[in-house]
Every structure is written in structure tokens, then in C-alpha cells.
Amino acid sequence: MIEEILKHITTDVNVNFEEVAATFGAILCVFVLLDRKNNLRSFRVMCIVTVASDFLDIIVTYVSFTINPAFPYAHFWVLLLNTLNYCGFGCIAFALFKYLRSYMRPTQGLHQANILMNTVFVIYLVCHGLNVLHPYIIDFDFKQQHFIRTPYSFVIGYGFPLLIVTMALIQMVLHNKEFTRKQQTTLTVSYIIVLCGVLFQAVIDAKVLIAHGTGVIAVFVAYFSLESPDYRKMSELLRESREAQKKIREAQRARDDLFAGMTHEIRTPLNAVIGIDQLILIEDKDPTVQFLAGKIKKEGETVLSVVNRILNQAVEEAGSSKKEGDITVPALDGKKVLSIDDTPINLKIIEGLLELTDATVVSVKSGHEGLERMRQEHFDLVLIDHQMPVMDGMATMKKMQEAGLKGDIPVIMVTGNDGEEYQKMYEKAGFDGYVTKPVRKEQLFATINALIRERKEEG
User: Fold this and answer.
1) Distance CA 62, CA 231 (A)
2) Nearest alpha carbon to residue 47 among 219, 253, 240, 229
3) For residue 392, with 0-12 CB atoms within 10 Å meaning exposed, 13-18 middle and 19 or more buried, which class applies?
4) For residue 83, which of 124, 50, 123 has the smallest C-alpha distance?
5) If we measure between CA atoms, which residue out of 264, 410, 428 comes closest to residue 342?
6) Which residue of 60, 100, 190, 242 shows the fewest CB atoms closer than 10 Å?
């Protein structure tokens, strides 16, 4: 039963399959040539090579089985046609590589792969040229009416083309950023179709005409999935959409960076003004000084409110003292606090505010200095400025954790940034809390009190 099926396949069915494939392939070639503006030149070349190879396969089979052996040079013509027919496999594979290469950006690796592929293809053609002089790959037996294949027909006739196709697909994988998932899937399916056709023709019978026909099917799959006008239009729209999204994301990042920089640059001098004013209110009880300092505080808070609105802050810090909970002076008597900030006036403000808590404050001007002091002595609380040169607050925290200096010491970020996204970012980085610039007594004390309560509850 199986032998009858295989015999049927190797006689009539495979010829019909090849003829149908050739007909549809010819129609596709005409269509892509008329519509050349909407498809790649390398794809048109691949179509023509594949369909021409299919037609040649049919002609070779017909001539080989019908030519009169007495015809002058009959054996030579049959041998030449069969050799050209086998060359068709390699030409299709090489055209596929050129097609895939047209999608890839030129690189040194691709240039070397191209040289290697050209070398393999030249060797392949030379081997088939030698077959015309001495048929060691493919021949035809007029007496037995049968194609004669040797081990070289498998190694050179089939092996080399499959090697070229495989190398082409490897290049596609290496350049996967330039191919969409759909393109990779489609080309892989096409490869499997051709591979199955080649293996079937190679191991079943020399009369089978399957491999070239499957090549035409693979071209059809590639066309309707990759090169049709509708697909290319959709791909172009998708590419434009991705480019637009990329530009929007870049614009958003630029906007965020701009606002972050504005926040830092504007709030830093405000921090100095309002911070010094707070210290004046604490230290000097003269009525006139108190009145003037109060005016400075009021006007400073007004400016801060305007800045917050400009910078799209969700909560106006001018009124946030009403929502800060416990603003009693934290009990830090005998505790050591490390303050890290590259701006001297900011360090003075933190020192002045924390003096009310009776804590011992050590001030340093960089993250490196802060890490060195932490290695030398123990601190009960650490405040770190976010924006610092060389090593900013985030990097300082990371170094603290890597060096095992963080432990259970509460660390507060002092920053010009505010909002839920920054709160999550600081929490993820390991900070126990943060205060915004300008640093005000109410917010600083409320944050420290909250940390003290957390430690007591945990204890």
C-alpha cells in the first residue's frame, strides 16, 4: 500500500503539484513586477529565481524522459539541464540571503558573512560546472529511464543550499532587532516548508518534483506576510507609530529632566532664604526682628507657593504644614545625626533646626565624606541631599547598603522633588523618609517623629 502511494507520488501527483506551483509563481512574478514600487528589488529577484527554477525543473524532467538518445549530444544536453536544475536550489538559497540582507543595517559582521556566503556560492557553482565535464553529482540513465544521484548530490546538491539558507536565518537571528516577530516567524515557516520539500525529494525518489514547488510556496508565504502592499503599508504605519511614541517618550523624559532641574535650582536658594529666616525667628526675639523675619517668612512662602504651581506640584507646600501631623520637637538628646549636603548654607540650616532637638550634628559636604564618617563612628540618623556632584544621594545610599553601613539606621532624603512617584522611588532605594526643599521645621520634625514612632512600634 505504501509503495503504491509513493509510486503514485513520484509519477503523476508531483508533476501536477509542480505545474500548479509554477503557474501561480508566474502570476506572482508578473504582479510584483507591475507593482515594483511597493516591494523590494531583492524580493522580486528571489521570486524570479524561484519560479524560473521551478519551470526549469519541469522542463528538465520532461526532456530527460522524452528525448531520443540518438539525438546529437542528447546525453550532454540532458546532463547540462540536470546540472542547471540542481544549481537552482543554491540560487534560490542565495537569493533568500540577499533578500534578508536588504533588511539588515550594514555592520562589520554582516560584511564578513556576505563574503563567506559569496565564497560558498562560488564554490557551489564551480562544483556544478565540473559536473558537466564529469557527472559526479547528477546524471541520467537513458536505458533505465532514471536519474542517477551520487553521495555528492546530497552533500553538494542539497547540503550546500540548506547551509546557505541556514546561515541566512542565523544572520536574521543575530539582527533580530531589525525583524519583527511576525517576519521572523514567517521566514522560519518558509524555511521549514522548503526543508521538508528538499528532504522529501532527497530521500524518496529522484523522480519527485517537490523541492522547487515548495520554494514557490515559501515565496507566496513571504509575499502575503511581508511584501504585499497592504502589509508594507501597515508596517510603515506601525513604524511611524513607534517612531512617534519614541519621540513622545523622549520629550516626556526631557520635560521631566527640565522640571527636576528647575525644581532643584529654584528651591535651593528658597531653602536658604526660608531656612535662615527660621533660624532668625528662633534665635532673635527682638520684636522688630521678629516682625521683619515674619514678613520674610510670609513672602517666602508665597513665592514657594507660586513655584509649586508652576512646577505642577500636587500639594502646595505653603499650606502643607496644616497636614504634617506631629510637629513637636523630636527627642534626640544624646543622639548623633549625620547631615550630607554639598551646599554649606543647607548644612547650616539643618544644623540650626536640629539644635532644637539637642542632637549632636555632624555635617559633611559629599557622599564620600559621609561614608568615611559612618565607617569611623555610629550615627542614629542620617540626612542626605539628593542633588550632589560626583556621588548623589541615591548613589550614596547604594554605597551604604553595599558596605553594610545602612543597617537599621533611619535615613532621610532631602530633595527638591515631591510626588508619589518620587516617594516610591526613594522607598525602593532604601530611604526611610524624605523632606522637600525648602526644609521647614514642621516637615522635618514630623518626619523624624514618624520614624521614632515606627522604631518604637517595631521594638
Assistant:
1) 38
2) 219
3) middle
4) 124
5) 264
6) 242
What is the three-class DSSP state of 177? helix
Report the SS3 class of residue 122.
helix
Q: How many helices (H) and strands (E) does the chain have?
A: 16, 7
Which of 119, 155, 157, 113 has the alpha carbon at shortest distance from 138?
157
Characterize 419-456 residue by residue with b for buried, 16 or more Cβ atoms within 10 angstroms of its Cβ, and e for exposed: eeebeebbeeeebbbbbbbbbbbbbbbbbbbbbbeeee
Helices assigned H by DSSP within 67-159: 74-101, 108-133, 151-152
User: So what's the pLDDT on residue 110?
Assistant: 84
Q: How many CB atoms lie within 10 A of CB 204?
A: 14
Say if strands 411-415 and 433-436 run parallel, antiparallel, or are unpaired. parallel
103 Cβ contact list (under 8 Å, min separation 6): 175, 178, 179, 183
Q: Are 50 and 92 in contact (CB under 8 A)?
A: yes
Please compute the mean of the pLDDT values over residues 431-449 and round it to a whole number.
91
Q: Which domains, from first to last, does the chain contain?
A: 2-227 (1.20.1070), 326-458 (3.40.50.2300)
Mean pLDDT of all residues in the chain?
81
Please report the DSSP string for 9-31 in residue order. IIIIIHHHHHHHHHHHHHHHHHH
Give the mean pLDDT of 41-46.
88
Bridge partners (DSSP) listed for residue 141: 146
Can you give the pLDDT at residue 299? 77
Neighbours of 257 (CB within 10 A): 10
Residue 108 has what pLDDT?
84
